Amino acid sequence: MSHEQFQSCIEECIRCMQACNHCYDACLKEDHVAMMKECIRLDRECADICAFAVQAMSMNSSYAKEICRICAEVCEACGNECNKHEHEHCQRCAEACFSCAKACRAMAA
């Protein structure tokens, strides 16, 4: 992998982590928070795996590709869940998740 590919994926993961953290916080403030529980759960998982993927890539871990593959799966699941909700924060999060999943798949290839 080139340095540029690593850097691009790291940046996508950071962007996704920030979007998930924002979505998580905003979902907790929604009127019907109970219907947002799966979105909240996946936002947390996705933010955590994105942070872990950044760490793995930053230290050139032997398992970076595998971690990126898992990150792509979690991002896809989170994006699909966020897409179910019309809130602007969910739609922005879904976009960031799908973009990160694409970058992570490219890293894992």
Structural notes for this entry:
By secondary structure, the protein is mostly helical. 81% of the residues lie in helices and 0% in strands. The chain is elongated. The termini are close together.
Q: Are there runs of 5+ residues with pLDDT below 50, and where?
A: none
Shape: elongated
Please report the distance between the alpha carbons of the first and last residues. 10 Å
Biggest β-sheet strands, sense, barrel? none
Structural class estimated from helices and strands:
mainly alpha
Q: Give the percentage of residues in beta strands.
A: under 5%
Mean of residue pLDDT values: 94
Helix content: over 70%
The arrangement of helices and strands along the chain is HHHH
Radius of gyration, whole Å:
14 Å
Number of β-strand runs: 0
DSSP summary: helix tally: 4
Compact summary:
The protein has 4 helices and no strands. It is mainly α and 109 residues long.
